[in-house]
Amino acid sequence: DFLCISLVNGFIQLRYNLGDKTVILQTFQKVHANGNTWHSLKAGRVGNEGYLDLDGINITQKASPGMIALDTHTDFFVGGVSSLNLVNSMAVENEPTGFTGCIREIVINNRELKLTVTDPKGGANVGDCDGTVCGYTVCKNNGTCQVENSGFSCSCPQEWTGSTCEESIHCSQNRCGSQGLCIPQPTSFSYICVCALGWSGKYCDSKIKFFIAKFIGNSYIKYTDPYYGKRDLQYSRISLNFTTNQTEGLMVWMGKGEDEDNDFLAIGLANGTLKVVVNLGERICVPLIHSKHSTCCDERWHFVTVVQNQTCIKVYLDEELILFEDIDPHRKYTALNYGGICYFGGFEIGRKVNIVTTGLFQKEFIGKIKDVVLFQDSKKIQLMEGEGYNVYNG
């Protein structure tokens, strides 16, 4: 399998092969060859339907039956490759050659690649394209960069301040302290403090302990499983108690949540019903949805357990088996490689649930969670030992 974007006779080409046939898309217009014009390029695929967009002009290749997952386990190359024999002959039109020009702001599956000296695994013959200390994103939030004898300076829009326009003017005099994040509230010319796990109060200056975690929205706990390396990932299990009056919300996401290829096991609410989704590989995931509406949203405590036995998934609600499904009878993938990461209630501040879960869940969880047990462990996990924000004593 491969996916390749290249420049061919002045046109941009997208080529990909998911295991059966090679799809080729090419832009209608040529790119400017004067070297002074930046172009915006968007390319990708949903299943085997591809799209290619150059400066707002879109080409879409309608999907035909066939493979729908890109299964690659190689490094990701930008601008060229370390060895030309790594390039599939179908991935380019002619002999593969390296790109000459400038590339900036590469975003892969909603994550920006940092094109710096230290972040990539390797590279060669790459220089600074801007040629000045200003670079591309030195000044944040639409600030304007000027080259100075001593380096650079940023001219900031009226809502922002700081040496690189990184700080909201509403937070410049904040009292949130070291245990809080300042969240600007431009409409009220003010701010609120969002407290780190184990702290509360208007300015996050009161230390707290809890065994029941209360999520109020824009809340999350990220817990790292210390026993992950010893787990038998073909037989996973998680159980917890929860209470809520909301019909939507993500309670648990076992998995890294970094890109769409990460394995995960998710538990949440959708349209007032319990929803469980498991992905063991290649995004082969079947949402399991309880048929009874609103039974989970009555502000009573409910006990949910999800058991994964290779590809067989069992879901218990209040100790009654409510869902049972073999999500892949072919047993192609049987292990939940979740990376030892468990999110509760949502994801890091700024990462929206509907985007990270690609629409499987719509909102953060609002309610309470307690008594979380992983696998067959004899002890409940200590939620306060994770990291997180905006979680309080329930």
Automatic annotation (TrEMBL):
GO terms for biological process: developmental growth. SMART domains: EGF, LamG. SUPFAM superfamilies: Concanavalin A-like lectins/glucanases, EGF/Laminin. Disulfide bonds join 102-129, 156-165, 176-193, 195-204. Keywords: Calcium, Disulfide bond, EGF-like domain, Glycoprotein, Repeat, Signal. CDD domains: EGF_CA, LamG. This is EYS protein. It comes from Ciccaba nigrolineata.
